[in-house]
Amino acid sequence: MRANTAAIGHTAGARGPRLINADAVAAYRRPGARGTAFALADGVGDDPRAARAAQLAAAAAVRADTDDPAEAVLAAQKAVLTDPDAADCVLVVALPDGNDYRIGWVGDARVYAAIGNELRQVTTDQTLANHFRARGVTPNPRMEHVVVVSVRTTTAPEIGVTRVPAPEFLVLASDGVHGRVGDDVILQALRYASDPARALVDAATVAGTTDNATALVVQCLPGRTGETTVAIAA
Q: Which of 46-50, 56-60, 113-117, 219-223 has the lowest mean pLDDT?
């Protein structure tokens, strides 16, 4: 079995101009698991049912008894579909595997990985805009915000999956953050901010985000074992 890896997680969020903060984050280390799983969900809509879906999905994804991120997303789907008070959401989940992470996603929440001065977006937005781009058609800007796959609607083949080898940092972000801050801002926050998650949310707010803005930053500690520290702030 590959060794457990320690990590430090920071998360921050802002409601922004919305009525409800329908973003949610979760972190959980299952007994015997090879580290802590992380998830971020973004509810579709601006009401309590959207928030409920995000909370259920994030919690179910990190607590799923699996090392397969697609199965973790399907566990989130089951939790949402069986709750009459839940609407829909998008989701990213990061499951540890030694020094690596396995990533699963549906919708347009994102995961970035950083090593040194290199930042890479490791997820692909499942939006109507990207659907048309893949077919050689220039999309309308409004299509950037229309998801074609969600927790409630996805099928197993539609779930995005990838593996990130030994990142120094992982950044999980809702579109209220990544829609307003660029790669340079993310790297500056990771390198210089004492609380990079809060720095990213504040930067998105200053840039005029019109959505909930949530970031979860995981600092990976290769070669070190132990419990993960996660600081969750509103």
A: 219-223
Contact in structure between 113 and 218 (CB atoms under 8 Å):
no
Q: What angle do CA 67, 166, 93 make, to 5 degrees?
A: 40
Residues of 199-228 as b/e, b for ≥16 C-beta within 10 angstroms?
A: bbbbbbbeeebebbbbbbbbbbbeeeeeeb
pLDDT band at 1 (very low <50, low <70, confident <90, very high): very low
Q: Is it the case that residue 231 has pLDDT exceeding 60?
A: no
Helix (H), strand (E) at residue 93: strand 89-97
Q: Compute the chain's Rg from CA coordinates.
A: 16
Fold classified for 6-232:
Phosphatase 2c; domain 1 (3.60.40)
Residue 105's Cβ-count burial label (10 Å; 0-12, 13-18, 19+) is buried
Question: What residue has token string 């340079």?
Answer: 184
Q: Please give the helix or strand (H or E) that residue 54 lies within, else none.
A: helix 48-63
Q: What is the mean pLDDT of residues 68-91?
A: 98
Q: Please state, in angstroms and as integers, the Cα–Cα distance from residue 37 to each residue in 143, 153, 223, following that order.
A: 31, 23, 18
The whole-number pLDDT of residue 207 equals 96
